[in-house]
Every structure is written in structure tokens, then in C-alpha cells.
Amino acid sequence: MGYIIGSVSFAYLFTFFLTGNDIREIGTGNPGAANVARNVGKKWGIIVWVGDTIKGIIPMVFARNIGINNIILLTIVGISAIFGHCYSVFLRFKGGKGAATTGGVVLFLMPILFPLVIILWFVAQKINPRSPKVLLSCVFFFFICMFFAYGLRANMGIFLQTSIATILLIITGLLVNPDVVKDMRKKNR
Predict the structure, then answer these.
(1) Is there a single domain that holds both residue 94 and residue 166?
(2) Residue 115 is part of which domain span?
(3) In which band, very low, low, confident or very high, does the pLDDT at 178 lie, cut at 50, 70 and 90?
């Protein structure tokens, strides 16, 4: 169910209904919120971003409502929505990069740290989003903040689960965006 919900492409739908165009054939060709904002309008890009974020949350809400409360299992449900966004069954297994949908998963799992994720994302984008040093620094800082937010505030069991969830999300990000890894390798040579 998470994969199917994640496969709904708001970028494609809004662009098609507003302009009659296929978002995959304009701008960067990426069916994501940023391409919609640049080519259809900022307002529509924001709406797509919110929709993509919510589709990361919805499957986990359903999972929690049927009794799944384990953070790692909920993360796997969220990851299925991310894979749906990136490899949409409705777009012949093509899709966006998954940033907003991943944000929705983080918002659901770690709401206290969600503002930090947004800040770190913008910092990485501003400095150099393909720099291993920048990315590792952001991840390291996130883990320190997560320790204080969950390890000390809640308990170490929650910190351990959120740590595993974060690692799973990082691995997912690398799997759905292999170009990032290639770019990092090129810059390190």
C-alpha cells in the first residue's frame, strides 16, 4: 500500500491538469516539486511538495492504525512510499528524487527533529549538496541532536530505533539517487 500511495505523482498530475504538459518533458524532466515550481509556478510547486510530503506520512498512519508501532517497521513502510515516488508504477517506474516524501517519513517518525532536517537540507544545498564532507557533517550533527532529543529525553531504546531508522533512510536515499554517489566519487578524485 505504501508503494502505491508513493507512486501517485502530484507533479505529473498538477502539471498535466494545469498546462496539459507532461512534467517529464519540460524543465529538468524530473517529476518533482522543484521542477513544477520552476515551470508551472511556485504556488503549484509548494502544493506538490506538500502532497509529496503527505504521501510519505499516509502509509505510516495506516500502519500505526492497524497496530504497527515499531519505529523500524514504520520506517520500512515509509521507505516503500519513497520507492513508490522514485519508481512510480504509474510513470513506468520513473519518478522524482524522493526528498519531500523522505521528509514526510522523517516528520512522522521524528517530529521533534523535522525542523532540523529542513535546516540541514538547506545548509547542504547552499554549501555543496554533493560534498561528502558537508553531507557527513550534517549527518553527524543530526545524530548528536537525535541523541539529545530521543536518547536523553526519552530513552536509549528509542534513540537506537531512531538511529536504525535514520540509517535505513540514508541507505534508501543513496539507492534511489545513485547519481549522488557517482558525483561524490568524481569530486574526490
Answers:
(1) no
(2) 111-189
(3) confident
